[in-house]
Amino acid sequence: MTSLPLPIVLAGARGHGRWHLANIRRLQHQGLVRLAGICELTPLDATELAGFADESPEQSADFGALLDSTGARAAVICTPIQTHTALALTAAGRGVHLLLEKPPAATRADFDRIRAGVRDAGTACQVGFQSFGSHAVPAIRELVATGAVGTVRGYAAAGAWVRDDAYYGRAPWAGRRRIGDTDVVDGVLTNPLAHAVATALELAGTTAEDITAIDTELFRAHDIEADDTSCVRVTTASGPPVTAAVTLCAEQAGEPYVIVHGDRGRITFWYKQDRVLVQRAGHGPLETVHGRTDLLENLVAHLTEGAPLLVPPERTGAFMEVVEAVRTAPEPRPLPSDAWHTAPVPGTGATRRVVRGIDALVASGAETLALFSELGAPWARSEVTSP
């Protein structure tokens, strides 16, 4: 067991890393962790470190050296996807426990290397799918197990988000499938809306070993390598299918959600809000909002009290099969110019690309468990890709 506060290093403190920095600050004020170091190419200034009292964390661009000099017991890795494997293995080699942002790796082979590395080192690894910490997840599983919506016919995820054109200019790896010989796989299914895919697979109890086929349809409205408007169907040997339809080119931004389709009802889970709606035969609609366990807090509890990890790597194996299917699929197809238009982002001066009719198409995919081509999207070819 480890004593408190747990000394921790944050690798990647800008971009999404700012959320982790704020969360570490919250837990430090509770006496659970101590920010011992920050690994960034450019050090954070005093303004960025506001709230950490008089103890300024050590800063370095050398992750391994920083772990050594700070005596860190845990690290949060929130860096570009293609760097996860090397950093995770660096930490494991020093006996440092991990909170590893999603996706955990860009390839199945690298994911297997991470799993082997932390197993051999005897270190804990928590993968950053925050939705798995929602108390709605076990509540939904209980509803399904007790037959609340009858026999489950399928699980579906939908995500319609808006990202402006600058989103893909924020970093050299953004929107890339690879850089040189290095896989990145920064597509909508595998990174920005990865939670939608992973949460549906988690609720379905899908394991990597049970998957028999993964059908992908990958498209892009932006001038990028990766996909920004895509769908996927996961077929298993023993359970109902899992589908996801997602875009970053929505007409109107909406909350992503997962639907459990039963033959006597349905459960809708807005996972970012921890909100659940149950609709079933013979009952009125029932909506509940659930609590959530923070994943870093859970990692601390695991190391100090022996609490079970909420998201160990093995619980993300099915998601990594989807990542691998996207990685090895043919290049995403550019949408024809008449399928999308450019729209201003109010109050910013920025512009964004909008795929015509995509909001309804994404919702229809979640309703019917169908792929874009099966829904008759004029720009989607009839054939699908199943690696």
From TrEMBL:
The keyword Oxidoreductase applies. Residues 8-129 form the Gfo/Idh/MocA-like oxidoreductase N-terminal domain. InterPro entries: Gfo/Idh/MocA-like_OxRdtase_N, Gfo/Idh/MocA_oxidrdct_glycsds, GFO_IDH_MocA-like_dom, NAD(P)-bd_dom_sf. SUPFAM superfamilies: Glyceraldehyde-3-phosphate dehydrogenase-like, C-terminal domain, NAD(P)-binding Rossmann-fold domains. Gene3D superfamilies: Dihydrodipicolinate Reductase, domain 2, NAD(P)-binding Rossmann-like Domain. Keywords: Oxidoreductase. Residues 139-267 form the GFO/IDH/MocA-like oxidoreductase domain. Signal peptide: none annotated. This is Gfo/Idh/MocA family oxidoreductase.
